[in-house]
Amino acid sequence: MTNTGKIARLPRAVRDELNQRLDNGEPGSVILPWLNSLPEVHAVLAKHFGNRAISDQNLTEWRQGGFQTWLRHREDRFWLRCQMDTASDFLEETEQASVADCLSAPMAVILAAMIERLSGEAHVNLDDRKGLLALVRELNRLRNGDHQSQRLRLQSKRPAATEPA
User: Fold this and answer.
1) At what angle do helices 39-48 and 28-37 cross, to 10 degrees?
2) Does pTM surpass 0.90?
3) What is the C-alpha to C-alpha distance for residues 109 and 1, in angstroms, rounded to an integer?
4) Longest Cα–Cα distance in the chain
């Protein structure tokens, strides 16, 4: 579902700065005057909200919704960067492994943790189960592609068979 509130309609650069300020613990009493003074904010408020200023309630709703999404997205990007750094380090060390080879170990740990969590629940959420199965299928697809590429590389290195004259 797309957010259509006042803050959600602001330009991304403004939302990102707002999220940084929230993340730094800046109070609403400081944020609201800053936010409502920006020309970009005035333009959005005039176009969509009859020039009504962003209120404390709007900011509270953003903290509980859009800001939380921003935090999760930032954490996901950080986690992915860490995994890719680990994969890159591993590739440099082995000089032959694929990224999927590098990612399969942390993915296996994640899958094991998810399986353990799901197996301990009396009632397993269907969405969790579907998500887990989708992850397993995707990892399997990635690994199969790598194995196919490896087979092709090995075949191309074999000497060509000579045909009898």
Assistant:
1) 80
2) no
3) 32
4) 90
Distance CA 163, CA 141 (A): 37
Cβ neighbour number for residue 54 with a 10 Å cutoff: 22
Both tokens of 53, joined, read 């200023």
Rg of the chain (C-alpha set): 25
Whether the CB-CB separation of 135 and 118 falls below 8 Å is answered with no
Give alpha helix (H) positions in 49-125: 56-64, 66-94, 99-119
Give me the residue label for tokens 């009632």. Answer: 123
pLDDT in tens, 59-106: 999 999 999 989 988 887 787 778 777 767 766 776 656 666 666 666
Return the SS3 of 32.
Answer: helix
Q: Enumerate residues 6+ apart whose C-beta is below 8 A from 8.
A: 2, 15, 62, 66
Locate 4 and state its tokens. Answer: 């259509």
Between CA 147 and CA 66 the distance in angstroms is: 41
Counts of helices then strands in the chain (DSSP H, E): 7, 0
CA separation, residue 154 to residues 6, 91, 158, 162 (Å): 58, 19, 7, 18
